[in-house]
User: Fold Chromosome partitioning protein from Natrinema hispanicum.
Amino acid sequence: MSTTTKRAATFLDKGGTGKTTSAAHLGVALAEAGEDVLLIDLAGKQGDLAKHFGVWEEVQEQIDEGDDWPNISTVFAEEWDQIATKLGDAAVESLIIETDEGVDLIPAHPGLDSLDADLGNIDDARERYSRLEQFLNEYIDDRYDTVIIDLPGLTNNVSYNGLWATKHVIAPVEMGPFESEQAAALRSDLKKIHDRFDVAVELAMVLPNKVDRRTNLANEYLEAFGEDYADAIAPAHVPVSQDIRNAADDGQTVFALEEPSTTAERAREAFLENATALQRRLDGSA
Ligand SMILES: Nc1ncnc2c1ncn2[C@@H]1O[C@H](COP(=O)(O)OP(=O)(O)OP(=O)(O)O)[C@@H](O)[C@H]1O
Ligand SMILES: [Mg+2]
Assistant:
């Protein structure tokens, strides 16, 4: 990739481990470090990232009023280049929303519902998996320092596009046997992509999330993840914190809390430290 824009996707073939939370918090942490950050929500029409930044109502209104074209699903269409040529900069700008927390966002859209099937109709596998990469190369890279893509918790044509476009995966994991298996499956999937297409997708960060160090089991898994993924483990685990959940419900990250609890404060520090490590790993200088 001949680009200086750093890209990563949050992905694990498992629901609820913290993909959206990590995309949001790492994004804000990078913005706090002075970067221009774009988050892209490919994780489904429910619009979790937009909700996480309190802008989903705004998006929903546009959808209800029919003022929702172009949108994130449009950029995967064969006609996208023609649309973008015709509309110029306005085409890309109308996709992007500014949030209060210093990151920009391309929100989800109901069109994501049929995107997996639409992509499945493209015969050539490279073409099927590289539509998002083409879009980022052509229309996004000059605008941002880092792009983080939030992917669905399942392996399909949409998540493949995210992996292919970013070549770097952030895998949030909870401390349990199933997550451990899914992380192993992810590593073997990345190897398959490499063998089949000669495309190297790296496991950039295994990010232990919702860690409760008061339990032995959590400590054991934390240690095991550290050993199994010595090259990819995040420098700091994220503690389980009710504040993270509450803040998300209020449409913000823990960085926006005026009176963070102890665990929220620790979560902030963890995301800041992990964002710094991510910067280095995506730069290729670590
Ligand atoms: N460290 C944490 N402490 C407490 N709650 C958390 C933490 N991280 C995430 N959560 C909560 O857990 C739930 C799932 O997190 P999140 O939505 O980020 O997961 P996901 O992997 O994106 O899920 P999905 O597969 O449904 O997209 C959310 O309610 C979120 O607020
Ligand atoms: Mg999610």
Observations:
- The two ends are 18 Å apart (CA to CA).
- The first helix runs from residue 19 to 32.
